[in-house]
Amino acid sequence: MSARKMFKQNQGVTSSPKSRLLGFATLLGLVTLFVFAFFLTDPDVRLHPTTGEEIGQFDAVRLLYLHVPMAIIGPYLAPLVGAVASVGYLIKRTPWWDVTANAAIEVGTIFCGLVLVQGSIWGRPVWNTWWEWGDVRIMTTLILFLMLFTWLVLHRFRLGWLEKESLEQEALTAIAERRAEATTNEEETS
Prior knowledge:
This protein has one domain. The protein is mainly α.
């Protein structure tokens, strides 16, 4: 069944009730997250026990409301979904698994990149540096980001190669059909 027929059959609704519920829960979670991050959370300010100087993360603590969920989705959840979907594609060879793997890796790449950027923004006021090359968490996240990005590039290349191969096959099929027609016409005329 074509996508257009399915769309008409569902009367313009392309989602299931469960996916709409998931979308609503996600939207509610994002609104809650932003309310906590920007309105309900006070800046992290403490007094140093001996000097009495103000210390803490100050307003940078609010970034953690975005950073931690993205750090769970980007480096952990999305690559796991991509790996499971890739194994599913190797077993079933259906496009659904391939599309699911690609979508998960795309989301993982974006969130992993955002985790690196947010971590740098958070690290400047807290650690007094934008980037700490010796921190294992930062470096493994960077390596994972580069691996996910490479996966996307190779997947795009593979799709381009498959499309080129199918175009070549179509061209060869068309040539073979023309030759068959020409041979049939020659036999009829002689």
